[in-house]
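#struct-help
A.M.: can someone run this one for me? Single chain, 246 residues.
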Amino acid sequence: MNLPQQSSIPERALAGRDAGLAPITRGGARTRTSDRVHEELIAAIRELRLAPGASLSETELAGQLHVSRTPVREALARLVDAGLVRVVPQVGTRVGLISLRDVEEARFVRESLEVSAFEVACADPTVDVTVLRELLEQQESSCRAEDYDAFFLADEALHCEIFSLSGYPGAWQAVQRMKLQLDRLRRLSLPDSAAMRELIDEHRLIVDALENADLPAGRALISRHARRALERGPALRVEYPDYFTD
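D.P.: on it. Structure tokens below:
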């Protein structure tokens, strides 16, 4: 079983990203190699460097990551338990497919927590949106440069900052753990210049609402924003039928 080559992933989904895995570097004494392997595989699945349904070989993964097979085996077992990797009898180990039901659940969690975070931040009369404005400019710049990885990172950082301003940054970490399926759907929808423009415009309106303490507008904007990716799910499923389940 071979790891997917770049050609196995749709060109549109791959634009601007490296299809390989990053070699694991030596970490601190308290960081296990299997933990670092697990983190890199999670990131690769989230970013579509490992495509939905891709075959996984312990030997080849170990070679790409520059580690032995043991930490790879341990990391894969954790991913199987989390439902992100599946073992198919007579076939082998594969990256899990995208479940739109899981995407909907992740959307529910994200929307609920982010609306709450916005409400708390909005109640702070000293809230400072400077970082949010800087992240908006980063998104504008990455959109112009068609740097989709940078755009996605700035997008994530903007939402993370809203949770930080609420005083509950740990809630964002809880959202992160839930939304891998949602993130894969979001990554699959890029690049799309029109969609990116709409995302930036919505982000700007959300930041404006926070700065102006406009709670009703902020609630409505965040709810609409959180549902955007899921709305594209059916069309993406038709475009990439091998990437989806249920």
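A.M.: thanks! Residues 99-240 form a domain with the Four Helix Bundle (Hemerythrin (Met), subunit A) fold (CATH 1.20.120.530).
D.P.: also worth noting: The longest helix spans residues 100-122.
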